[in-house]
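task queued by scheduler; priority normal; single chain, no ligands, no partner chains; default sampling; output format set to C-alpha cells
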Amino acid sequence: MTARRNAGLASPRQCGYCSAVFARIFTVLLIACRLTCASAAPPVIEDVDGQESFALESSAVSDLSGIVWTGGDSFYAVSDRRNVLVPLTLKIDPATGRIARGEIGEPLPVPADASDFEGVAYVAATKTFYLSAETGHAVLRFRPGQPRAERLAVPPVFAQARKNLSLESMTWNDTAKQFWIANEEALIPDGPVATADAGSLVRLQRFDAKFRPTAQYAWRTEPAAFRFHGAGSGVSDLCVLPDGSLIVLERGFGAGGLHLRLYLADFQNATDTTRLPSLAAADACVPARKILLFERASGFVNFEGIALGPPLADGTRSLIVIADSNGGAAHNFLPLKIRLAPAARASK
C-alpha cells in the first residue's frame, strides 16, 4: 500500500528537474514578452541638428506634393500641376542626417487619364511607380518607358470624394509588402469637412502586394482653426514602415498659419470600415488611435509629402518631408530622423 501511494509522487530528483524546466520556460516567456514590448514601442522622430530646412530653386517644375526614396541619393517627386515624375538628387550626410546638396532633374512625362498627382510610391523589385491622383480619384501604376499609366481599381466609396479633397496619399514599403492610400478630408457620405470645433473622418485603405484591398480604417483629423481655398485639416500623406506601422502626415490651418503633424496610427481597437457605406453616424465606427510623434508650425510653408530615406550612421533612418511650392520656384524640404522600433529596423 505504501509503495502504491508513493508511486504517484515525484522524487526529489524529479522535482528538481521540473523546477529547472519551468524556470527555463519562464525565462523564454519573459524574453519573448520583453521583445514584444520593445517592438511595440513607437518610433521616435527627431529634428536634424543644425538644419531646419533645405531649399532648391527651379522654375522648371512647381507644386511638388509627394516624394519617394528609390535608393542611394535618388528620390522622385510628383507635381499636382503637371503629369510628371520629377527626379531629385538629395545627398544626405549619414553622420548627421542633413541634406548636404541637391538637384532637380528633367521631369519625366506620365501619360494618364487622371491628373493632380499627390502621392507616389516605388516598388524596387519591378522598378514601378504608383501614383495617387486627386482629379479622377485614381491610383496609377507606371513604369518609365511604358506608353501610358495603368489605372488600378480602388474601393468604389472613394469616388464620392469632395472636389480637391480626394486621394492625397500613397505609400508602399518593400519589406512590409503593403500599400496604403487615403482621402484628404471626409468623403461626402462620411460627414462634414474639418471645422474649428471638430476634425474630419478620413478612410485609410490598405492593399497587399498585388494591390488587393485588405483592410480599411477611419481616421479623425484635427480641427481646423480656419479654412483656406477649400482646405482645412486633412491627411496629406502616409509613410508605411518596414514592420507595417503607419505614419500619418496631417497638414492643417491653425494659429500662425500651417501646421505639420506626424502621427503613428494604432489600429488595435479600430473598426474595419470596408463594408460601411457611411461613417456619418456618431456610433458608426471606432477610428484608429492617434499617437503624436512630431509637430511644427510651418507658417506659409506647405509641407505635404513624406518619404522614408536611407539609414544613418547612428542607427536612425532619414525621413524627408517635402513642401508644395504653391506655384513658386523655391522647393523646400524638411530633413528629420526617425528611430524605428527594433522590429522595424529592416533594410527598406
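post-processing summary
- The radius of gyration is 24 Å.
- Residues 12-40 form the longest helix (29 residues).
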